[in-house]
Request: fold
Amino acid sequence: MGVTTVTDVRPAAADATGGVLQTLFRTEQGGHEQVVLCQDRASGLKAVIALHSTALGPALGGTRFHPYASEEEAVLDALNLSRGMSYKNALAGLDHGGGKAVIIGDPELIKTDELLLAYGRFVASLGGRYVTACDVGTYVADMDVVARTNRWTTGRSPENGGAGDSSVLTAYGVFQGMRASAQHLWGDPSLRDRKVGVAGVGKVGHHLVEHLLKDGAEVVITDVRTESVDRVLDRHPQVTAVADTAALISTPGLDVYAPCALGGALDDVTVPVLTAKVVCGAANNQLAHPGVEKDLSDRGILYAPDYVVNAGGVIQVADELHGFDFDRCKAKAAKIFDTTLAIFAHAKADGIPPAAAADRLAEARMAEARRT
Reply:
């Protein structure tokens, strides 16, 4: 149970796409409606657009720009991320299905307006079945470019009719999920005097640190980018930095661990050494494989499902389609507190991990939409 990471994408000996096709058509992690491979040689674009479900409405999800080790790895990530978006949008109460796009390559080296315009044309060719936005490696300025060739683009700048940076509400939603976790476990939603470790203090993580400090938490951080760590320490010298995630998760006295970087943060190596009693972070697809959610539960670690607590950003970009209002979006993101508490209650009543309870609720909403 849980929206876990797909791992079986190894190419078959006779067919380099064999592993991917096996995943799509024959495994529980598949079931996607459509996967589009995009190439524009003139600009150097190589991209994958994955639509997991449109049962609740047009698929909505961001565009990740990343130097994948292989095309198969890129397809794998698109499958994982789009499936997670279906569940996220369902539990956020949005009338959107799940989709995600990945662009293959180092954005520092190959990102150009020509490449982004070509990508926009591919998204537009889907006729509104997929609405795109920002993700790792893409920013508001990039969505402004994509929107020049694709009307189904959100996450644009206010100057171009958009809502701007969605990471602000993403962090706010994660903070609400963390407050709900504290309420469930310790009977008090405050993080005051709690030690919280944040792995990844980039677009979302540094905003989360702000919320935690204002609430009186003791914060420990790490990030692979030195400049991201320095930005936080320059602004908040009371924050402690450690060398890497391995040091962070084994920090003595850690109350909450917040994975806010890439997926797969919870696996057979990290879970046994976690010192925290709560895991609640912004990263997508934190569970590396099926069974990790049970391992967390068996260790007495409360896991706030990632796609529930990090939904603030998608709430914002969805609202952009109807005329953005920040206060309205923040009010919707605040409800992540109640949704998270309801999932914990559901999990306790049914004797299952919270990830499984969240999946059941999301799947029930999607199934009801398909019936009607």
